[in-house]
Amino acid sequence: MNGPLILASGSPQRLSLLLKAGFKPEVRIPEVDESILPGESAESLVERLAVKKLDAVISFGECGVAADTVVSVNEKILGKPGSPEIALEMLQTLSGETHKVITGVALIGPKGRHSLVVATQVKWKELTKDEIVTYIETGEPLNKAGGYGIQGGGKDFVVSFEGSFDNIVGLPVDEVVSCLSDLGCTCS
Questions:
Q1: Does residue 123 lie within any of the structural domains?
Q2: β-bridge mates for residue 118, sequence order
Q3: Is 150 helix (H, G, I), strand (E, B) or coil?
């Protein structure tokens, strides 16, 4: 199938990753309730939300991708902080810890649908309150899962990671490209 790849996300990071991979996606921003269900794991949450986002904006016959990313540390799910106060709490929670960045991806194409979950382990250094406050003042943490962007100032906090760097940014590109191909998407 030729035609545009539909990106069911308003994330500038996901758009940038797809552009770097050679796609020219059409962006459609889904409106979905992102509430966590009682007892829901981070993995089932991100997969469920990715599927909901895809279904909200993709029509039959189109190629599309949707994703949702959270950070999980000590069984606690961290989404986007939304306020400097919550960002401070999140970043203090991550300080000196190893956490997982978990992305659920849903894809559709002429040969069907597929969803998957990719996790990357990230180890952080111990942060001072001044480092955290200075980072929050940049505004970067407020719209990022876990309150940081590894492609921005958050890279300074990372000691090491195991797995996909692109997943930490917000979309495991290698897995997405492979799945789109399997689903018959030859879109640009």
A1: yes
A2: 103
A3: coil
**Residue 137 included in any domain:** yes
Which residues are the active-site residues? 68
Q: Tens digit of pLDDT for each residue in 69-92?
A: 999 999 899 999 999 999 999 999
- Sign of torsion, CA 72 140 88 125? positive
Q: What share of the chain is helix, strand, coil (3-state, %, to 5)?
A: 40, 25, 35
pTM of the model: 0.94
Q: Please count the other Cβ atoms lying within 10 Å of the Cβ belonging to residue 22.
A: 8
Q: Is 71 left (phi over 0), alpha (psi -120 to 50) or beta?
A: beta
Closest CA to 118 of 19, 32, 62, 50: 50
Copy the structure tokens of residue 53: 């986002």
DSSP SS3 for 84: helix
Domain count, the chain: 1
Segments forming the whole domain that contains residue 31: 5-182
